[in-house]
Model the fold of this input.
Amino acid sequence: MDIRLKWFYRLGFILLLFIVFYIFMKLKPMWGPVLSVMLVVLLPFIIGAFISYLLHPVVEALHQKGVKRGLSVIIIYLLFFGGLGVGIYKGIPTMMNQVEELSENVPVVMEQYKMWMRNLEYQTSNWPIDVHERIESGMDVLAIRMNTFLNHLMNYAMKALDFLVLIGLIPFIAFYMLKDFESLKKMIWYITPKKWRKQGRAFLRDVDTSLGGYIRGQLFVCVAIGVAATLLFWLFDMKYPLLLGVIIGITNVIPYFGPIFGAVPAIIIAATLSIKMVITVAIIVLVLQFLEGNVLSPLIVGKSLHMHPLFIMLALLAGGEIGGIIGMIVSIPILAILKVFVLHARVHFRKKEPLVDK
Done:
């Protein structure tokens, strides 16, 4: 076939894909509600599968030391969900109280900032009037956005109670998935077409090698940093220590930009107390980030992704543009899966020797 004709076929195929996608999006009012219901129903299974995936290596390590598999599952299961349950039982009410208190004190915080801005305006009276007006309007916008964010946080927490039954299923789903992990693997093996089995297993193995260690290590580091930040804020009498510690722990999962996002709320609140507290909080954040970047991450996470920082930054920016903070969190795992997919697709389309299953 002529090369130009091949390109016409390829362009026609791409154009057809765009048309199909456009029609599919136009039909969203029809399939959107069905997809929402499916997501709600499948969410406990997705979370349960994720928890099982995280705990499975620990269960296997315990099993290889001579502990029966069933007993290994029960031990790890009770330790994980027991600790998680105690943390939720003790921490959620405290955190909600701190969120509510912070929401009520936002006007006081903003009034403090306005007083500082008036002092700054007095000291910079020779600056253009437009600059002062923009600073004032910026503070008003910041106050509105802080109130909106805190209200959304409270609303999401209340909505979570509506799905209490579904959330309560997660521990049971995770338990059975852990217990029957090998049986589930065999079931997936047998329902997969024979011609895809070896390459599919090799693909999943490479994804697990690239992604598994990163996710488990990163979660451990984030929990450690969040707990350490909470304790240090509490020891130094910083306001809302649990809330700020949770924010620092969650945002720490985002490479490069996460520490900045996590430090900003703590610095802003510390600034309403005293300059000494600002310096204290800044030192705490810097010390934690030094330990995370030079001790914890290299030791626990390592270089499991094997990707250049430029690609990671590009993925973070794209994820942030598409899905905000959540998009930045999931962008790195998606990038790792895409990397493995591209490597396997290149082997497949070049018709090289199939990957040998170890």
Observations:
- The radius of gyration is 25 Å.
